[in-house]
Design a protein that fits this description.
alpha/beta, Rossmann fold, binds N-carbamoyl-L-aspartate, 2 domains
């Protein structure tokens, strides 16, 4: 269904809209057959993923020369972006900010609501509506699941609509992290991600990166997933149901030792204790969900070790020296993939791909 048809049917009530099936909501966040608001991993199909990764590669190459970098920076130099990051962030914030600068955007930011008018009692909804008066793009990280989606819903109905990109929404989704993760898997694994076994380790219940990454796997044939977590922090049923519906084989275990041998990629994550309600993380023995120097002998020569970062002690520091540890490369990839996504939203990716 086209967005315009959808608009006439769309409920004016946010709660009703929010409760709808994701597939019914997706057209509302598209315009002219392209993503307008990037909110969920389910918005990406294989064609778009391949295209975005091609754009990211091309931008990377172009940016190596001053002429190429100046060309990229001219494409959207008439645009302004707002980064509204009210949950801690280092790499997502910086990579988005620099992705904007690569394309010529001017950026402004709010990272602390205690110094915005929210402290005077303005609702977050009114506060984000204010941005639309000043900027052409909102990139947002928020602790409440659904809040980024609500912002996009509000902005889409506003007189001056502004696209919204999800930079992490509570425990729910982090779609652009999933994009850079797949880009990294494709570029580091011979033959790409298809047919590979990916082992995701840690707090899978509350980790939004592993959730968004699992959704993207529907676009790749023959992928097998192994979820390794403490019993209290297993992957949620909605993701397991999604995988079953899309015939993606998965298995769950709490023992990393035996499964690391069969992995083509091991995706480590930290415990997400900011979501604790009564100190539940303290009861978890997380030491069994760590990757150590000695484990390097057990894994395949071609297996890569990933992490969305920040890490605590899930990966021993000395592992960084091994060529199979790709998390710093993964982090760098984020800026290029995010720049490619912004180029797509603003319809300049053809110009980038055509540039010699
Ligand atoms: C992740 C996040 O914020 O969900 N970090 C990131 O964006 N690279 C993972 C985490 O915080 O553990």
């Amino acid at each position: 269904m086209k967005r315009t048809e959808m608009m006439t049917e769309v409920s004016p009530n946010w709660d009703q809209f929010y409760r709808q099936d994701i597939n019914a909501k997706i057209p509302f966040f598209c315009r002219e057959d392209r993503i307008y608001d990037c909110l969920f991993s389910q918005q990406f199909d294989r064609h778009l993923l391949d295209r975005l990764f091609g754009v990211a590669d091309k931008m990377r190459r172009l940016a190596q020369t001053k002429a190429g970098a100046d060309f990229l920076a001219s494409l959207l130099s008439h645009k302004r972006a707002m980064l509204y990051f009210v949950q801690p962030s280092t790499r997502t914030f910086l990579s988005f900010q620099n992705a904007c600068h690569i394309l010529g955007f001017k950026t402004s930011e709010i990272r602390d609501t205690s110094i915005s008018s929210e402290i005077k009692g303005e609702t977050p909804e009114d506060s984000v509506r204010t941005f639309s008066s000043y900027v052409d793009l909102i990139i947002m990280r928020h602790p409440v699941p659904g809040f980024v989606e609500k912002t996009a819903w509000v902005m889409n109905r506003a007189k001056r609509p502004v696209p919204v990109i999800n930079g992490g929404s509570g425990k729910d989704q982090h779609p652009t992290q999933a994009l850079l993760d797949v880009y990294t898997l494709n570029s580091c694994l011979k033959g790409g991600v298809e047919g590979k076994t990916i082992v995701m380790v840690g707090d899978l219940k509350r980790g939004r990166t592993v959730r968004s990454l699992s959704y993207l796997m529907k676009n790749y044939k023959g992928v097998r997933l192994v979820f390794v977590s403490p019993p209290q922090l297993r992957m949620e049923k909605d993701i397991l149901d999604f995988l079953s519906r899309h015939l993606i084989p998965y298995r769950e275990t709490d023992d990393l030792g035996p499964v690391m041998r069969e992995a083509d990629a091991i995706y480590m994550t930290r415990i997400q204790d900011e979501h604790d309600t009564a100190g539940e993380s303290k009861k978890v023995d997380y030491s069994r969900f760590c990757f150590r120097q000695k484990d390097l002998k057990a894994i395949k020569d071609t297996c890569i070790i990933m992490h969305p970062l920040p890490r605590r002690d899930e990966i021993e520091l000395s592992v960084d020296e091994d060529d199979r540890a790709v998390y710093w490369r993964q982090e760098r990839n984020g800026m290029w993939v995010r720049a490619a996504l912004i180029a797509h939203i603003f319809s300049v990716e053809d110009q980038i791909l055509k540039r010699s």
